Amino acid sequence: MQRLTPRLRKDGVDLELIMLIRTILAASKEIAFRVNQGALSGILGSTLDENIQGETQKKLDVVANQLIKDMLLDNEQVRALASEEEDTIVAGTENAPYIVAFDPLDGSSNIDINGSIGTIFTIYNARNDVPNDSPEQFHQRGKYQVCAGYVLYGPATMLVLSTGGPTRCYTLDATHGGYLLTTEALDIPSETQEYAINGANQRFWHTEIKQYIADLIQGEEGIRGKRFNMRWNAAMVGDVHRILTRGGIFCYPSDTKDPNQPAKLRLLYEANPLAMLVENANGKACTETGDILDILPHDIHQRVPVIMGSRNEVETCLNYYKQ
Ligand code: AHG
Ligand code: MN
Ligand code: MN
Ligand code: MN
């Protein structure tokens, strides 16, 4: 089985970018080790702090953030970084070529129950038209990502990565400590009978998504004419990993739950990297009105509605918003 670095070289990826990806993965191996140790590593439970989004931080949110941040700041390829757990951007090496954004630990509510969790990351070329330490470094559309990936800490630790070409899948071989290529190119089936949405939010949904989900639930007796099944991981990486593997649709629509937050998921370090991975695996990733990868960000923590997965099903869902 092929190792990561030779595979990336064969894909024509710049050596500097390969070194940067390897830095993130070195941090991911540290996190994987601690996750595997569970309660023995003292990383379960909450801190007394909140992040800028008002979420109580879990110990592992903070530990994972610190590990990735420290390693990235030691890497001279990084001009600035942004993280879910950092209020604002963190400056790295002046005039370095890349900027990195990450969700150090996705699926925080799964940490204490030994459920699937992950680390999501994205890399862009740094901008030379704004200062090194300006948040505007990150005001770049998702379609300009030079690399997107996640590491899923599940029963196996897996890396899913795209550097612009196909979305490839690697598995961490704990015996030698390296990521080995296990799926050359993920290919999401365009049709599906599986959906993922947090149904507990139903009373906050807008009419379009209410009607779409109601039609799915009707199954073979409704206008869809086929039976659907529902899966919800409470970790977007887990849901998207299932969809990349066997198809499906993931929806976290806008809702009226919090008048200050029209949607839940974060564009920069959740929606955009996962959208690139889904699109490069022949899937589709949208908000309720357009492609996620076309949005010009104005805030590093800005939130967006997300509908992604099997191409035809995503288009069917979007048609409800067009009527
Ligand atoms: P995070 O743990 O990084 O804050 O992200 C959690 C996100 C996402 O992973 C997941 O799909 C969603 O929140 C879960 O939302 P619910 O609490 O509505 O299930
Ligand atoms: Mn969080
Ligand atoms: Mn997250
Ligand atoms: Mn997180």
Automatic annotation (TrEMBL):
<dbReference type="GO" id="GO:0000287">
    <property type="term" value="F:magnesium ion binding"/>
</dbReference>
<keyword id="KW-0378">Hydrolase</keyword>
<feature type="binding site">
    <location>
        <position position="84"/>
    </location>
    <ligand>
        <name>Mg(2+) 1</name>
    </ligand>
</feature>
<feature type="domain" description="Fructose-1-6-bisphosphatase class I N-terminal">
    <location>
        <begin position="16"/>
        <end position="183"/>
    </location>
</feature>
<feature type="binding site">
    <location>
        <position position="106"/>
    </location>
    <ligand>
        <name>Mg(2+) 2</name>
    </ligand>
</feature>
<dbReference type="InterPro" id="IPR033391">
    <property type="entry name" value="FBPase_N"/>
</dbReference>
<dbReference type="Pfam" id="PF18913">
    <property type="entry name" value="FBPase_C"/>
</dbReference>
<dbReference type="InterPro" id="IPR020548">
    <property type="entry name" value="Fructose_bisphosphatase_AS"/>
</dbReference>
<feature type="binding site">
    <location>
        <position position="105"/>
    </location>
    <ligand>
        <name>Mg(2+) 1</name>
    </ligand>
</feature>
<feature type="binding site">
    <location>
        <position position="103"/>
    </location>
    <ligand>
        <name>Mg(2+) 1</name>
    </ligand>
</feature>
<feature type="domain" description="Fructose-1-6-bisphosphatase class 1 C-terminal">
    <location>
        <begin position="188"/>
        <end position="321"/>
    </location>
</feature>
<dbReference type="Pfam" id="PF00316">
    <property type="entry name" value="FBPase"/>
</dbReference>
<feature type="binding site">
    <location>
        <position position="270"/>
    </location>
    <ligand>
        <name>Mg(2+) 2</name>
    </ligand>
</feature>
<dbReference type="InterPro" id="IPR000146">
    <property type="entry name" value="FBPase_class-1"/>
</dbReference>
<dbReference type="GO" id="GO:0006094">
    <property type="term" value="P:gluconeogenesis"/>
</dbReference>
<feature type="binding site">
    <location>
        <position position="103"/>
    </location>
    <ligand>
        <name>Mg(2+) 2</name>
    </ligand>
</feature>
<dbReference type="GO" id="GO:0042132">
    <property type="term" value="F:fructose 1,6-bisphosphate 1-phosphatase activity"/>
</dbReference>
<dbReference type="GO" id="GO:0005986">
    <property type="term" value="P:sucrose biosynthetic process"/>
</dbReference>
<keyword id="KW-0963">Cytoplasm</keyword>
<dbReference type="GO" id="GO:0006000">
    <property type="term" value="P:fructose metabolic process"/>
</dbReference>
<feature type="binding site">
    <location>
        <begin position="106"/>
        <end position="109"/>
    </location>
    <ligand>
        <name>substrate</name>
    </ligand>
</feature>
<feature type="binding site">
    <location>
        <position position="264"/>
    </location>
    <ligand>
        <name>substrate</name>
    </ligand>
</feature>
<dbReference type="GO" id="GO:0005829">
    <property type="term" value="C:cytosol"/>
</dbReference>
<keyword id="KW-0479">Metal-binding</keyword>
<comment type="similarity">
    <text>Belongs to the FBPase class 1 family.</text>
</comment>
<protein>
    <recommendedName>
        <fullName>Fructose-1,6-bisphosphatase class 1</fullName>
        <ecNumber>3.1.3.11</ecNumber>
    </recommendedName>
</protein>
<feature type="binding site">
    <location>
        <position position="198"/>
    </location>
    <ligand>
        <name>substrate</name>
    </ligand>
</feature>
<keyword id="KW-0119">Carbohydrate metabolism</keyword>
<comment type="subunit">
    <text>Homotetramer.</text>
</comment>
<dbReference type="InterPro" id="IPR044015">
    <property type="entry name" value="FBPase_C_dom"/>
</dbReference>
<comment type="pathway">
    <text>Carbohydrate biosynthesis; Calvin cycle.</text>
</comment>
<dbReference type="InterPro" id="IPR028343">
    <property type="entry name" value="FBPtase"/>
</dbReference>
<dbReference type="GO" id="GO:0006002">
    <property type="term" value="P:fructose 6-phosphate metabolic process"/>
</dbReference>
<dbReference type="GO" id="GO:0030388">
    <property type="term" value="P:fructose 1,6-bisphosphate metabolic process"/>
</dbReference>
<keyword id="KW-0460">Magnesium</keyword>
